[in-house]
């Protein structure tokens, strides 16, 4: 009774509430079970429906249903396997390999999944992926006969023929009879693959294999044989068969084949179908260019839309397609927006011309030069050269008008064509080479041949002849230029220089005076004539020059009158008056050593001061000239002499040594040897001056060499080096038989030797 009362503690209403809650729980459990049961039922129904669609050959709809089921139940091994099988029926080998790998991850114990993935990769010709996947496999799988054959094919196609054959040799002897792939490998490794009936018959047999990888490889070999034989029609037929048998592999290859053949509409059709299976970015670009050649701008823009996201290669592909569409529309602004974003990997004919058009418009010479080099360097692009040449003509004209000679010359070097010489480019090339100090003789010969009367070509040729010291040729070229009506001061000056170089001083003087009359305001002519008169002691010429300067009040060269007077005084022997005139010029400081004609005048003034023993002032001028003078070695040697005269022996030696190290001529050797002697470096002085002393008329050289030899004789004897002492005595005696030191020390060495205290 007590027990019953405990079990009946709840009142009537409360009992109803509890019972109601229990009923709800039961119903909820029933509903949940029903919900999952419905989901399972629907999935089973979808799988069943997918199976029916697969049986009917409607793979696309079957894929929609199966993909939904796999996404809903990723851990269902059977579903994943069925999905992989469906993808294989669709001949989507890359996707199938990925799904087979998913199945292998769900059930690592089933090694067939991994093998199926390898087979799918072989069917899709994804050989590098195949090798990467096979690498980590256990040896029990990796060394299976069928896997060895797959790995051998992959290594062969990856370019590792030796490894491929090593793997093949691991197969049993009878494997080739059982396995189509092993049979194909045996054929590839053992036969010469040429266009013979026997080879073609065997390949045709492999092309009919049920193994899609074997059939595909055989067809590709057949197509290659036909292409090498020049039978492109037959090759196209084989590749079309491949595209029908294995569209994921064959369609892109067929599209590329049509593209290379210039069959752009056919290529576009094939590429469009191949997009379903996926295209490499290279083939996408070919697809876009096929549409471009077919004038299908809308098709290009649609294709570009697929590449507006992704990694850098995808984005750049989309950028190029946008540039392609803009180019066809004639929208230069859009082309210019896209082109700078492209890199150098875009080197197809269309890509090069699109980039060239943009860079040429914007005077981007380095990029234009790069593209022209590319066109001329790649045989497949050579045919573009005439179009590229025409495209850059406006750029050439602009650069010439803007006197951008260096940029134009860089273009000239890549555009130069013997068959189509361009005057502006020729001028730019020669002027640039002249600025650099050396003109290529071949360039000059071609220029004279192509443009024999062009004033610029003749001008550069004359200057080049002057550099070579061929004044006869220089005169001939200058006269030709003058006869053509190009009577400029520069050309007349060339004639004057040539006459002077030939020693025809009177004629040169006459032409110089005529030049002075024709161009009375030209400071360069005035300064050059001053230097000419000084060089040739033309006192009357200096008087004429002074009158010309005085009479021409507008030239601004009246400041030169003191210098003209100084030079005239120097030639007449009045050194004191000459120095005073030079000092007046230096005080005004209007000569600029960076100007060639001013540098020449300063050089003459320094020499004049040096002759007058005004060494400190002369040194200052030479120091100004040293960084800019065309012949710095002359400045250094003159400086060395003056520095020695003022007692700065260390710097004098340094200047002379700097010249001697780069120019071991007689003059530099003489000055350097003298400085060595003055500095007490007798051994080196004797060696340097020894090559000059025979026949030398400069008493300073003879005195310095003999003085060095005398000091070396004394030093050797004092040190007990009697053999060395005798050597120098002999050298000195040979050249100067009456030399007292040589005779004296020869006797001393002999005396010591007779005494027995000196070695012979």
Instruction: Tell me the helix content.
Output: over 70%
- Total number of helices: 45
Characterize the overall form: elongated
Instruction: Write down the Rg.
Output: 47 Å
| Terminal residue distance | 152 Å
Please summarize the sheet with the most strands.
none
Oligomer: single chain
Overall pLDDT = 85
Structural class: mainly alpha
- Tally of strands: 0
Low-confidence stretches: 1-42, 756-760
Strand content: under 5%
Set out the fold topology.
Elements: H1 2-7, H2 12-55, H3 59-72, H4 77-89, H5 93-106, H6 112-123, H7 127-134, H8 139-142, H9 145-157, H10 161-168, H11 175-178, H12 180-190, H13 197-207, H14 212-228, H15 232-245, H16 247-260, H17 264-274, H18 281-293, H19 297-305, H20 312-329, H21 332-338, H22 349-361, H23 365-377, H24 385-391, H25 393-401, H26 405-415, H27 423-436, H28 441-450, H29 455-468, H30 471-483, H31 489-501, H32 505-518, H33 523-535, H34 539-551, H35 561-572, H36 575-588, H37 596-611, H38 615-625, H39 632-645, H40 649-662, H41 666-678, H42 682-690, H43 699-718, H44 722-735, H45 740-754
Descriptive labels:
760 residues; mainly alpha; 45 helices; 0% strand; elongated; disordered C terminus
């Amino acid at each position: 009774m007590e027990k019953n009362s405990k079990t009946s503690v709840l009142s009537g209403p409360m009992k109803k509430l509890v019972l109601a809650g229990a009923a709800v729980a039961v119903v909820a459990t029933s509903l949940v079970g029903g919900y999952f049961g419905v989901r399972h039922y629907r999935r089973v129904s979808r799988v069943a429906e997918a199976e029916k669609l697969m049986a009917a050959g409607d793979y696309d709809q079957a894929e929609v249903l199966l993909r939904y089921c796999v996404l809903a139940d990723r851990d269902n091994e059977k579903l994943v396997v069925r999905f992989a099988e469906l993808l294989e029926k669709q001949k989507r080998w890359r996707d199938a390999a990925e799904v087979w790998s998913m199945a292998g991850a769900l059930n690592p114990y089933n090694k067939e999944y991994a093998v199926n993935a390898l087979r799918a990769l072989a069917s899709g010709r994804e050989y590098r992926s195949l090798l990467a996947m096979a690498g980590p496999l256990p040896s029990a799988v990796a060394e299976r006969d069928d896997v060895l054959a797959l790995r051998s094919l992959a290594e062969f196609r990856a370019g590792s023929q030796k490894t491929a054959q090593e793997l093949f040799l691991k197969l049993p002897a009878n494997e080739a009879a059982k396995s189509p792939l092993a049979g194909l490998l045996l054929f590839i490794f053992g036969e010469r693959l040429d266009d013979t009936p026997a080879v073609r018959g065997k390949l045709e047999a492999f092309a009919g294999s049920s193994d899609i990888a074997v059939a595909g490889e055989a067809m590709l070999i057949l197509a290659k044989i036909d292409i090498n034989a020049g039978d492109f029609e037959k090759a196209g037929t084989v590749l079309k068969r491949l595209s029908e048998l294995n569209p994921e592999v064959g369609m892109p290859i067929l599209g590329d084949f049509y593209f290379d053949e210039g069959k752009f509409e056919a290529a576009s059709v094939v590429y469009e179908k191949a997009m379903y299976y996926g295209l490499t970015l290279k083939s996408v670009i070919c697809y876009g260019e096929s549409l471009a050649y077919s004038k299908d701008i809308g098709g290009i823009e649609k294709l570009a839309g697929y590449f507006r996201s992704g990694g850098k290669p995808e984005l750049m592909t989309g950028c190029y397609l946008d540039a392609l569409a803009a180019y066809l529309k004639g929208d230069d602004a859009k082309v210019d927006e896209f082109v700078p974003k492209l890199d150098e990997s875009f080197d197809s004919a269309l890509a090069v011309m699109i980039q060239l058009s943009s860079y040429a418009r914007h005077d981007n010479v380095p990029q234009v030069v790069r593209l022209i080099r590319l066109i001329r360097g790649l045989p497949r692009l050579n045919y573009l050269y005439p179009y590229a040449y025409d495209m850059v003509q406006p750029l050439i004209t602009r650069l010439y008008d803007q006197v951008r000679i260096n940029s134009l010359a860089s273009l000239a070097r890549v555009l130069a064509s013997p068959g189509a010489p361009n005057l502006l480019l020729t001028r730019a090339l020669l002027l640039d080479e002249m600025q650099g100090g050396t003109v290529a003789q071949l360039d000059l010969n071609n220029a004279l041949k192509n443009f024999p009367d062009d004033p610029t070509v003749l001008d550069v040729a004359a200057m080049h002849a002057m550099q070579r010291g061929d004044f006869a040729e220089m005169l001939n070229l200058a006269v030709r230029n003058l006869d053509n009506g190009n009577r400029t001061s520069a050309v007349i000056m060339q004639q004057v220089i040539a006459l002077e170089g030939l020693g025809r001083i009177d004629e040169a003087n006459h032409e110089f005076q005529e030049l002075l009359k024709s161009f009375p305001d030209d400071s360069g002519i005035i300064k050059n004539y001053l230097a000419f008169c000084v060089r040739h002691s033309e006192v009357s010429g200096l008087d004429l020059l002074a009158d010309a300067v005085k009479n021409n009040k507008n030239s601004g060269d009246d400041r030169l009158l003191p210098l003209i007077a100084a030079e005239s005084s120097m030639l007449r022997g009045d050194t004191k008056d000459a120095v005073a005139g030079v000092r007046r010029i230096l005080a005004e400081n209007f000569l600029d050593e960076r100007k060639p004609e001013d540098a020449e005048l300063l050089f003459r003034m320094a020499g004049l001061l040096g002759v007058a023993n005004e060494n400190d002032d002369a040194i200052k001028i030479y120091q100004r000239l040293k960084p800019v003078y065309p012949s710095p070695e002359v400045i250094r040697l003159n400086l060395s002499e003056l520095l020695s005269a003022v007692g700065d022996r260390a710097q004098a030696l340094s200047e002379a040594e700097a010249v001697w190290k780069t120019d071991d001529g007689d003059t530099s050797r003489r000055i350097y040897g003298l400085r060595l002697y003055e500095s007490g470096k007798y051994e080196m002085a004797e060696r340097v001056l020894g090559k000059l002393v025979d026949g030398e008329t400069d008493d300073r050289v003879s005195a310095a060499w003999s003085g060095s030899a005398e000091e070396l004789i004394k030093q050797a004897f004092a040190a007990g080096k009697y053999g060395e002492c005798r050597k120098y005595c002999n050298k000195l005696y040979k050249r100067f038989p009456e030399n007292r030191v040589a005779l004296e020390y020869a006797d001393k060495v002999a005396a010591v030797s007779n005494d027995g205290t000196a070695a012979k």
